[in-house]
């Protein structure tokens, strides 16, 4: 237990780092994924801006990058991270790569959930005189909001997982902390505490997501 | 000038699979729909009914031909103007297509928001519409808390929000039970009579056409094969396809199997006499047979009423010398429609 007291400040720092990594990545990846997912959705054949070429290109890109194991993705995109954020290591670089990776994952989730919106409802909006942009903003997104919230909650858990991997390489976060102090210095209690924090964090967000989705879906 | 004038319109969908055939969903259709009509469009599944109405509010662009709505040829309009056009054309659907993320109030308000009306006006108009369809107490409910009939009422209120002159109804009662169907039809009748809205109803339910429509077009394979007053088309369909359609609701014409059963019990000649109001009466016909000493027995029949006008089909078994029967039939043909059933 003394270990925990000694390491208290670092522990707090690591937790905050993880929170920062996860939420920043969820934010950027969330926006990126929403945009790419929307683009996939609207350019699909028969949809509002159906465009075979754009859909085909996006589809292939997402299909190529989404399944890459994150640890490989991380190392492969280190040069790009260095170009964009100025450094290949550290929290900023980790956030960049995490956001990029989650953009691909989220875009599919967004696309799948938007596809559940009934074409009839979209037709009703068009028949009411709404243009495509308005239809997307006022009908398609609100109609899919419940499942989208659940999708983002699911993604949050995946990002917590990826953030530990990113942190262990780039330094920072609970993952790196658990490895450095718990694994390398044989202090299982540190590992277990890190684990407990992650569990609490995930449970909290899962609860919040379910609650929000339920509120939106009124079930 | 009719409110909707369709001239030589075709709609071709590109082949859905590589190397497949393009689909000619609408194939050279001409149609006039006058202001105040309740215009029924009937036909079997795949005949092109939905496609045709979706051309009228330009949800689909026509491939060729012209569609003049209220004096404007919409086939040449840019998308921006089409949105304005759609504000003047309401549409209701078989599956209601309500916005599940919006309350009843939010659904009805939507077209008004699209039209950019001020908030206060929208609030007043929505209240008025919900009152009209009898759902004032459901304003804050969500669609999934309503019955099918209530959902369609919301659909109708939403379609009427911007006070359109035309209402398109694509199988609007097909998902409802018979009783609810009658309620919704009554509401549509009110919409037509009291608000003066021209209604175009697509349906495969003939009783909907019979009880609601004033005119009807029969579609087959993307063409309008017959059109006219409902009474005329129903009492005297010209083409076999329309006859087949009409016979599903018009009482009095025996089907092939019914005819076979009748033949087992009766050995005389069968004729079907079609009475329409204004023509020869039943007593005229029966008297004629009696005078010639021809035995007659009513074996099948029924009387229908469309918009207060009656017509009937009676199938009679005739017994007597063949040449005298032929003579009477020939004489009656001048005054009434009479066909020998073989
Ligand atoms: N978006 C589309 N792309 C390709 N073909 C289509 C499309 N919409 C309709 N069709 C085809 O056009 C034809 C007419 O279809 P439509 O939906 O107008 O028929 P309908 O008379 O309304 O039938 P139903 O009574 O089943 O609703 C059908 O052969 C259909 O397969
Ligand atoms: Mg249809």
TrEMBL record, chain A:
Q: Entry's InterPro entries? A: AA_ABC_Transporter_Permease (IPR051322), MetI-like (IPR000515), MetI-like_sf (IPR035906)
One Gene Ontology term from the biological process aspect of the record: D-methionine transmembrane transport
Q: What does the entry list under GO cellular component?
A: plasma membrane
> Which compartments does it reside in?
Cell membrane
Q: Which UniProt keywords apply?
A: Cell membrane, Membrane, Transmembrane, Transmembrane helix, Transport
Q: How would you describe this protein's topology in the membrane?
A: Multi-pass membrane protein
Could you tell me which Gene3D superfamilies the record lists for this protein? MetI-like
Membrane-crossing residue ranges in chain numbering: 20-42, 54-77, 83-106, 144-169, 189-213
Q: Which family does it belong to?
A: Belongs to the binding-protein-dependent transport system permease family.
Q: What is this protein called?
A: ABC transporter permease
TrEMBL record, chain B:
- What range(s) does the ABC transporter domain occupy? 4-246
Listed transmembrane segments: none
UniProt xrefs under PROSITE patterns: ABC_TRANSPORTER_1, ABC_TRANSPORTER_2
A GO biological process held by the record: amino acid transport
Q: Where is the signal peptide?
A: none
Keyword annotations of the record: Amino-acid transport, ATP-binding, Cell membrane, Membrane, Nucleotide-binding, Translocase, Transport
Task: Tell me a GO cellular component.
Answer: plasma membrane
Please indicate if the UniProt record lists Cell membrane as a keyword. Answer: yes
Q: What molecular function terms (GO) are annotated for this protein? A: ATP binding; ATP hydrolysis activity
**Keyword Aminoacyl-tRNA synthetase carried by entry:** no
The entry assigns this protein to a family as follows:
Belongs to the ABC transporter superfamily.
Query: What is the protein's known function?
Result: Part of the ABC transporter FtsEX involved in cellular division. Has ATPase activity.
Give the quaternary structure: Homodimer. Forms a membrane-associated complex with FtsX.
Under what name is this protein listed?
A: Methionine ABC transporter ATP-binding protein
């Amino acid at each position: 237990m003394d270990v925990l007291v000694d390491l208290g400040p670092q522990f707090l720092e690591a937790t905050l780092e993880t929170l920062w990594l996860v939420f920043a990545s969820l934010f950027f990846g969330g926006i990126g994924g929403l945009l790419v997912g929307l683009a996939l959705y609207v350019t699909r054949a028969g949809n509002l801006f159906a465009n075979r070429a754009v859909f085909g290109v996006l589809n292939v890109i997402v299909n190529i990058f989404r399944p890459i194991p994150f640890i490989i993705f991380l190392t492969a995109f280190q040069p790009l991270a260095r170009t964009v954020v100025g450094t290949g290591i550290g929290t900023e670089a980790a956030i960049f790569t995490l956001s990029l990776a989650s953009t691909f994952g989220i875009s599919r989730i967004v696309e799948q959930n938007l596809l559940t919106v009934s074409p009839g409802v979209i037709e009703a909006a068009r028949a009411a005189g709404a243009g495509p942009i308005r239809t997307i903003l006022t009908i398609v997104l609100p109609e899919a909001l419940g499942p989208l919230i659940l999708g983002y909650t699911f993604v949050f858990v995946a990002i917590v997982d990826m953030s530990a991997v990113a942190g262990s390489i780039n330094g920072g976060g609970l993952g790196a902390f658990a490895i450095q102090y718990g694994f390398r210095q044989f202090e299982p209690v540190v590992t277990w505490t890190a684990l407990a924090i992650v569990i609490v964090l995930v449970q909290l967000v899962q609860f919040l997501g379910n609650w929000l989705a339920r509120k939106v879906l009124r079930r | 000038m009719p409110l909707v004038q369709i001239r030589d319109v075709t709609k071709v969908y590109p082949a859905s699979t590589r190397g497949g055939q393009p689909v000619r969903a609408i194939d050279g259709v001409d149609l006039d729909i006058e202001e105040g009509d309740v215009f029924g469009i009937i036909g079997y599944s795949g005949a092109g009914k939905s496609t045709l109405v979706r051309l009228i509010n330009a949800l689909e662009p026509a491939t060729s031909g012209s569609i003049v709505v209220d004096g404007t040829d919409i086939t040449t309009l840019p998308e921006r103007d089409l949105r304005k056009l759609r504000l003047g054309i309401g549409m209701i659907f078989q599956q209601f297509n309500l916005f599940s993320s919006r309350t009843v109030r939010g659904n009805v308000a939507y077209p008004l928001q699209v039209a950019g009306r001020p908030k206060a006006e929208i609030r007043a108009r929505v209240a008025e519409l919900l009152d009209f369809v009898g759902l004032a107490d459901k304003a804050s409910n969500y669609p999934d808390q309503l019955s099918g009939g209530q959902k369609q009422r919301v659909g109708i209120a939403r379609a009427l929000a911007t006070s359109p002159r035309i209402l398109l109804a694509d199988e609007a009662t097909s998902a409802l039970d018979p009783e609810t169907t009658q309620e919704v039809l009554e509401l549509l009748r009110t919409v037509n009579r009291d608000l003066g809205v021209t209604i175009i109803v697509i349906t495969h339910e003939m009783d909907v056409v019979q009880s609601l429509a004033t005119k009807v077009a029969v579609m087959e394979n993307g063409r309008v094969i017959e059109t006219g007053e409902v009474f005329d088309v129903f009492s005297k369909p010209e083409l076999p396809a329309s006859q087949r359609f009409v016979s599903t609701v018009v009482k009095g014409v025996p089907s092939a199997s019914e005819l076979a059963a009748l033949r087992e019990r009766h050995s005389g000649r069968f004729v079907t006499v079609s009475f329409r109001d204004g023509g020869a009466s039943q007593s005229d016909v029966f008297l004629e047979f009696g005078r010639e000493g021809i035995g007659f027995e009513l074996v099948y029949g029924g009387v229908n009423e469309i918009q207060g006008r009656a017509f009937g089909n009676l199938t009679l078994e005739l017994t007597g010398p063949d040449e005298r029967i032929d003579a009477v039939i020939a004489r009656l043909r001048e005054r009434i429609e009479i066909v020998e059933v073989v």
